[in-house]
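Teaching note: in complex prediction, the entire set of molecules is handled at once rather than each chain in isolation. The prompt given to students was simply: 'Predict the structure of this complex.' The entities are:
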Amino acid sequence: MLSLAQNPRLLRLQNLHQIPLKCLHTSPIPTPTPSPSPSKPTSQILKIRKSLLSRETTAVEIAKTFLDRLRRTEPHLKSFLYISPADAVLKQAEEIDRRIQNNEEVGPLAGVLVGVKDNICTSDMPSTAGSKILENYRPPYDATAVKKLRENGAIIVGKTNLDEFGMGSTTEASAYQVTANPWDLSRVPGGSSGGSAAAVSARQCVVSLGSDTGGSVRQPASFCGVVGLKPTYGRVSRYGLVAYASSLDVIGCLGSSVADTGIVLQAVSGHDKFDATSSKQGIPDFASQFIPSDYLDSKPLNGLRVGVIRETLEDGVDPDVISSLQGAASHLEDLGCTISEVSFPSFSVGLPAYYILASSESSSNLARYDGVRYGNQIFADELSSLYGHSRAGGFGTEVKLRILMGTYALSAGYYDAYYKRAQQVRTLVQKSFKAALEENDVLISPAAPSVAYRIGEKKNDPLAMYAGDIMTVNVNLAGLPALVLPCGFVEGGSSSLPVGFQMIGSAFDEEKLLKIGHIFEQTLQGCCFVPPLVANDF
Amino acid sequence: MGSRAFMVFLTHRGSSINPISNVSHLFLKKTPVQYKNQRTQKYFSTKAKSSLEPPNLPRLAETARISLTPDEVEEFAPKIRQVVDWFGQLQAIDLENVEPAIRADTEGDNMRDDLPQNFQNREAIITALPSYEEPYIKVPKVLNKE
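The expected output is the structure of the full assembly:
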């Protein structure tokens, strides 16, 4: 359990907004508590690989540890919609052990337990996208990202909960269950990849896949104190991702360290003939960015230009979130970065533009769930009633609302006023980012205007819910990569709540984000992002 | 929190205290989005800004093929109106001569040749069909009676 007394970083961050920032550089940096020293985030994937190859442990033992924790924590969290039977998981682990025993080659993700968001297709598990309309749907194929994970030795442990079709920011819009935040069970884990973030946070699995249309990997990463990576649009094949808004959707990764998200990205990246929007750009060796902290000099990020997006720190953002971002900025400055401020004039209009595009595209994409091609069929004498009743029974409220809004925006005569204008705003947003990233290596902002809020707090106010996406949607409009990583804690009732910040890079420059992110987390003193729920295990 | 969050967008640029102004080398280029009419700058106002017809929910539901219950119509109508009004703020921005971007400007098309290919797991697709009578897939009646 974290407390103020045990966590000097927390003190530092909390006091920050009361002190003029320049004082920070002259004030002594609090020394981390020597014992028990919160360990630096280490790559769980590399740790597993090392312990397997050195025969220190077995894949079966590792799998058992995770399955045991999963069994213990899942009744509180409900992060999974489907959990692989234990014997299926152990069978795959045994096969890995057998190969290692025989000195056969094993993939870089051998023995790594992965949670997969339930809107990503898996051939041996249901894939419901959190919707009743796809209840019991079993795809006849694996999504390319899942296929690649398996080829690399990963074991898919289950399917994680989400807001129906990814439409939501809390995971409360799942047709099946509400997932709790591992840091405070009365709060939401964020969304829509809330299950994927909660599962990694509570160490129910090592890493997970999510999807990010407007922030659905990044905001839950911030709420749950894990690392979330949204790759460049086109970096990862979307074959097998249930389409929501095709001009924005990407598959992303969540992990408990920057290195883990980078290793997963490495595995799932690349062009795929089944997805014409997947890129043919070369894939750099992301792992080469992860320099062990012992080899870092005192200013490892010297000369790097970091721009703080001014519009993300205005009224309406929690002061605690702002001070956390300032703390992150000053930490980056300590590491040698030059911090400056960037103005982003079209920032706020990106939000309605995003919602026009997303709802319009969803109204078209979700037309396929008609009770005939997909989905539970509700019988009717006449065809349009069959469609209407099947869709009425299969979709939840938020999905219906978005389809209806999108239908409105795409109505004859309205296209120019809504969809086209939103696309023009997208051009402005892309230009703003381009200009800002010509003068800066990366841009930073909060990941969300607040920390995790209470379950039910925003359920009936769509605009309040949408407002929470302001920090992330512009990045999707421009298709840029962004990394969210935990940077501090905010006092929030029963326990401290983690808070993350967002780092945005140029298209296909995930490498730089991972490099900076890795150094940031390795040098951040005194923070331990393991939630109280499972702290005894570590 | 919700209504407060909206204030972010309501704030006139430059009027708030800059919380990180003490960080070195600040630069601030103030080139706000151009509005046709300065009065519409408070774009979170829910007053309709356009002459476009407000949403007609029963018609939308019919177009979208979603049967709504009377309770849903009552619940959804104000929410949809509220969001559509909010969408309306884009009418106030001067977007003349701005090209629309159909998606992220990251890479051109990577289209494969338009050739038919066999799906590898054909059996699984057929097994998943609710009703299959070789060689026909049985679907609900799709033609209405005369």
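Point out the following to students. The two ends of chain B are 56 Å apart (CA to CA). The longest strand of chain B covers residues 132-133.
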